[in-house]
Amino acid sequence: MKKGIFGVMHYYMPTVGALSMHASANEGPGGDSTILFGLSGTGKTTLSADPKRNLIGDDEHVWTDNGIFNIEGGCYAKAIGLTEEKEPEIFRAIKFGALVENIQYLPSEPRTIDYDNVSLTDNTRCCYPLEHIPGVKIPAVGGHPKNIIFLTCDANGVLPPVSRLTFDQAMYHFISGYTAKVAGTEMGVTEPQSTFSACFGEAFLPKHPYLYAKMLAEKVEKHNAHVWLVNTGWTGGKYGIGKRMSLRDTR
Fold first, then answer.
1. Which terminal residue of the chain has fewer beta carbons within 10 Å of its beta carbon, N or C?
2. Among 147, 136, 123, 213, which Cα is nearest to 177's?
3. Sign of CA dihedral 81, 85, 87, 89
4. Is the pLDDT assigned to residue 86 strictly greater than 70?
């Protein structure tokens, strides 16, 4: 249902001059909004739930002539290995009114979730209303973004942690959408696999990727947004040699 509606929005929104985006979004104290593009597992949900910024949404947004708005009204976070220390905002959001999927309880404590149990699948998830995140912005709308971040999980140890992109580089990376699929994002994926997904969400695009890329280019140029490429993958070597950057450090 979630991704079905997303596909409908990707079809309909461009017809009214609005850009639908596979991206999370938040807003700073000064009213500056940021959008973070990325495939599943690259850190969209965790990085958008920043204690110093107000959450707008974690996965699906639209950029109109008036700013951005959230499609969903809730968040759908990966729960594998979840701890309060690593991701306190998401951990505390899982309370009455939230849903967990594919997750077991601890045998010794039947009301306590075992986030390390992946006996059903690595793709364990939690779903909670936006209101469960402290400082969430309601209604979930924001102004035109000052910064756009492309999140990519590089398993080859090539990309630097952060890069400021020129306009041409930004369009290249958006249309190519390089990242790595990681365990827990798709069935059969047990270790990182390099992949390319146009507009960081090719599976949801009913129209040609160039249409969405052209709309993004026009909006970036019109509103003078800065575009960044942030690597949430491996550093010090590729997968198996280096280590994955922590999302705390990335934030």
1. N
2. 213
3. positive
4. yes
Residues of the chain within CATH 2.170.8.10 domain(s) are 78-132
Phi, psi of 136 (to 5 degrees): -65, 150
Q: How many CB atoms lie within 10 A of CB 109?
A: 9
Task: Return the percent helix, strand and coil in the chain, to nearest 5.
Answer: 25, 30, 40
As a CATH number, domain 78-132 is 2.170.8.10
pTM: 0.88
Encoded tokens for 136: 């969430």
Q: Give me the pLDDT at residue 6, please.
A: 94
> How much is the pLDDT for 180?
85
Predicted pLDDT of residue 110: 79
- Name the percent of the chain lying above pLDDT 70: 97
The class (CATH top level) of 2-72+135-237 is alpha beta
Q: Across all residues in the chain, what is the average pLDDT?
A: 92
Cβ proximity of 140 and 75 under 8 Å: no
Cα angle, residue 209 at apex, residues 57 and 34 outer, rounded to 5°: 30
In angstroms, rounded to a whole number, what is the distance separating the alpha carbons of residues 163 and 43?
17
